[in-house]
Write a structure and sequence with these properties.
This protein has one domain. Helices cover 75% and strands 0% of the residues. It contains 6 helices and no strands. The two termini are 35 Å apart. It is found in: Endomembrane system.
Length: 179
């Protein structure tokens, strides 16, 4: 969903840019700048770090033991192309976006705070679902003791923050903004 919303905003930004080109309306220019800021924030805080996290974690666990993250039973409901749409194509598309469009990253402290907020919120949401239903969203969590779950969740937050930093460094390298 994050990727779909993000790329929808990218298309909207590009269309708005094309439609306002040559127009002297300051209001349209102001609105376009807001849209570009939203696009850049979403790329920095959500699309890149969450996308890379999903691809690396999903396929790492899948290769180790697919039943822990994507039970074979799901093949009856989710076709292989959709699985790859959710867990594979995210990475090349987000890398293409980074290479073709310069994104202005927020300050490092604000960016990391936003990434942490998202990650902790997602973890709390998973815990809430487990509390209400008695079932973990990801079967892997059923196999972890409470202490190991805490370590796993803390490691996940750290890893997604590292991916935020990797995105920032990669963006700066591609667009050579740190001279």
């Amino acid at each position: 969903v994050i990727q779909a919303v993000f790329f929808g905003i990218c298309v909207l930004t590009d269309l708005s840019s094309l439609l306002t080109r040559g127009n002297d309306s300051q209001e349209q220019e102001r609105q376009l700048k807001k849209l570009i800021s939203l696009r850049d924030w979403m790329m920095a805080v959500l699309a890149f770090p969450v996308g890379v996290f999903v691809v690396t974690m999903f396929w790492s666990i899948y290769i180790y033991d697919r039943e822990m993250v994507y039970p074979k039973l799901l093949d009856n409901f989710i076709p292989a192309w959709l699985n790859h749409g959710m867990h594979t194509t995210v990475l090349p598309f987000v890398l293409i976006e980074m290479r073709t469009t310069h994104h202005q990253y927020p300050s490092r402290s604000c960016g990391l705070a936003a990434v942490c907020t998202f990650a902790v919120g997602y973890i709390l949401w998973m815990c809430w679902i487990h509390h209400v239903t008695g079932v973990w969203v990801y079967p892997l969590l059923e196999h972890l003791s409470p202490g190991v779950k805490i370590i796993f969740f803390a490691a996940a937050v750290i890893i997604i923050n590292v991916f935020y930093l990797v995105g920032e460094v990669l963006n700066n390298y591609i667009w050579d903004t740190q001279k």
